[in-house]
């Protein structure tokens, strides 16, 4: 059963079996044979050839040759830590998620922060989105909240993700540049795919150069669904708020840090935890009843939109503290596998087409990245909940499954086969949503407003924040060599705000646009992103 202490579940105890501390032990081969000499290979004669029978030398070099695995296809560079989460009060009215019922229960977590575009060895302080992925090791199985530090995303449908990432990654002919938003392919794509413009505004803002992972918000981005014991659903958006406040670098600092200490954000997280300055986040939720699904002037299933906090306030529901660095970067931070489809009873999906694609993509990529189907058995991924099923074999199988029969139903194993559970016994049951309609590919008309919230974001900025945004557009777009792409990007910015577009145009050598004729201002002018843009400081 689940491993627990009086404080709650103990993931550390669960990891102990895998810890390998060399202190006080002899050097051995992988077979446990003690090694007498590891500095010279076995040779025939003083100056003769190396002998094949030197199994230690061969094993040592072979193991070295196989040390690398593919880096993540996105979010390759990151840093992570263990911690704990505790809910403030029972959330039973909206969700039956076990880890959200009892304020006395501590749930262990692992969080990985990351940049998106750069490769594993790239610098921390680049202009980019940051990943904020949390694995909750709950009594009812692992729940992964795989979020970012922006509340919105560049595309509405996951089928565009390969295109988007190809445009963001270094260009295919010469693998330049590392910087995600400073090249032609990025601006070409986002200006042709204007649903990206809201998130582009966030990317050009100070939010894209966080001073510290400890000072970043996190967002689930999609609208998810809470489900309570009665089977009733409630839409939910997740927010992490750092107790240290939201702080950014300025661009000049970011560039200097990238040169002088490419590990700037990593080191900050590691050192704070080593020094006992444990970073904390409050988990908040925006809850929307199913009756209000269509009460907004945007679609809740559209991941390029926020729900303004004036319309739905964020309710704080719990707190997370990160208090333990990993022992081994590769084993833990690199091999952890997050997946949006890792949900527990009480948390379910919506039909957000970006989320639906993610629910396919993560497991698929991990099957290749982590070398086969058994990566859930790796120490960092292993649930504290008991795992019992008839899934078998495969590369890297760690479990010794006992019994004659591995199918269901069966009557041959003593005690019978593992039995399915009722929802009362903690079984996951998919939400019984009613769906209807024809099979179509056309994007829903409710997804067609690309600019209102980009304008809302711009209107919510203080003067100094606007100056930073203009400077960022000029710097990044200024690296774009194709004039027609720069012009098209300015046209898109002009749909957001004319003054902004003029200011950008002046800095990148294209003609100033005339005022846009379309009026996208569908959102109420009373709304702002003040809460969200909140306590960000200079
Ligand atoms: C990795 C967030 C959209 C595919 C990640 C990671 C985060 C993240 C935080 C890093 C996980 C880690 O630390 O190991 C998001 C968010 C999205 C989004 C917030 C939009 C709201 C997508 C989409 C797809 C996708 C649409 C594909 C259709 C991937 C893949 C990885 C990844 C393949 C690498 C996973 C691995 O190798 O373990 N994403 N992502 N993501 N994401 Fe996303």
Automatic annotation (TrEMBL):
Which residues of the sequence carry a binding annotation for heme? 72, 112, 161, 358, 362, 369
Its EC number is 1.11.1.6
Which molecular function term from Gene Ontology is one that the record holds?
A: metal ion binding
Q: Which UniProt keywords apply?
A: Heme, Hydrogen peroxide, Iron, Metal-binding, Oxidoreductase, Peroxidase
Entry GO CC: cytosol
**Ranges where the Catalase core domain occurs:** 28-416
Chain residue numbers at which the record places covalent cross-link 3'-histidyl-3-tyrosine (His-Tyr): 339-362
Q: Which domain of life is it from?
A: Bacteria
Which coenzyme or cofactor does it need? heme
What is the protein name for this chain? Catalase
Tell me the lineage of the source organism. Bacteria, Bacillati, Actinomycetota, Actinomycetes, Micromonosporales
Task: Describe which stretch of the whole protein the shown chain covers, with first residue, last residue and complete length.
Answer: 16 to 553 of 720
């Amino acid at each position: 059963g689940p491993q627990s202490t009086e404080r709650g579940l103990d993931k550390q105890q669960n990891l102990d079996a895998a810890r390998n501390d060399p202190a006080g032990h002899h050097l051995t081969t992988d077979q446990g044979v003690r090694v007498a000499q590891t500095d010279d290979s076995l040779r025939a004669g003083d100056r003769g050839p190396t002998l094949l029978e030197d199994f230690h030398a061969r094993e040592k070099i072979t193991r070295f040759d196989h040390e690398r695995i593919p880096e993540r296809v996105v979010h390759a560079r990151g840093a992570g830590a263990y911690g704990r989460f505790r809910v403030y009060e029972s959330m039973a009215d909206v969700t039956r998620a076990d880890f959200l019922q009892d304020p006395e229960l501590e749930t262990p977590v692992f969080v990985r922060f990351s940049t998106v575009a750069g490769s594993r060895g790239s610098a921390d302080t680049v202009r980019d989105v940051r990943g904020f992925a949390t694995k909750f090791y709950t009594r009812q199985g692992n729940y992964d909240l795989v979020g970012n530090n922006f509340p919105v995303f560049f595309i509405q449908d996951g089928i565009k993700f390969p295109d988007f990432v190809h445009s963001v990654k270094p260009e295919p002919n010469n693998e330049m540049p590392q910087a995600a938003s400073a090249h032609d392919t990025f601006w070409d794509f986002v200006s042709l795919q204007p649903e990206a413009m809201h998130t582009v505004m966030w990317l050009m803002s100070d939010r894209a150069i966080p001073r510290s992972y400890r000072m970043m918000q996190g967002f689930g981005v999609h609208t998810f669904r809470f489900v309570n014991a009665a089977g009733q659903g409630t839409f939910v958006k997740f927010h992490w708020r750092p107790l240290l406040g939201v702080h950014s670098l300025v661009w000049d600092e970011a560039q200097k840090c990238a040169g002088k200490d490419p590990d700037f954000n990593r080191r900050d997280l590691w050192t704070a935890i080593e020094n006992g300055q444990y970073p904390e986040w409050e988990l908040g939720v925006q809850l929307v009843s199913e009756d209000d699904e269509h009460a907004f002037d945007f679609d809740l299933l559209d991941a390029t939109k926020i729900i303004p906090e004036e319309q739905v306030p964020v309710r704080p529901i719990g707190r997370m503290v990160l208090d333990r660095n990993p022992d081994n970067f590769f084993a833990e931070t690199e091999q952890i596998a997050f997946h949006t489809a890792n949900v527990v009873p009480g948390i379910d999906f919506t039909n957000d087409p970006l989320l639906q694609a993610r629910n396919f993509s993560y497991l698929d990529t991990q099957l290749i990245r982590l070398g086969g189907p058994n990566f859930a058995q790796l120490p960092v991924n292993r649930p504290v909940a008991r795992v019992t099923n008839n899934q078998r074999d495969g590369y890297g199988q760690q479990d010794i499954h006992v019994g004659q029969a591995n199918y269901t139903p069966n009557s041959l194993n003593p005690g019978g086969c593992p039995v399915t559970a009722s929802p009362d016994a903690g079984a996951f049951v998919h939400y019984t949503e009613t769906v209807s309609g024809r099979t179509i590919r056309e994007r829903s008309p409710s997804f067609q407003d690309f600019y209102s919230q980009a304008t809302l974001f711009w209107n919510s900025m203080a003067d100094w924040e606007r100056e930073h945004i203009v400077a960022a557009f000029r710097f990044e777009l200024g690296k774009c060599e194709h004039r027609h792409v720069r012009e098209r990007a300015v046209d898109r910015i002009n749909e957001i705000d004319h003054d902004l577009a003029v200011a950008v145009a002046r800095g990148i050598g294209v003609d100033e646009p005339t005022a846009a004729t379309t009026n996208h201002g569908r959102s109420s002018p009373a709304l702002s992103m003040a809460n969200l843009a909140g306590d960000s400081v200079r």
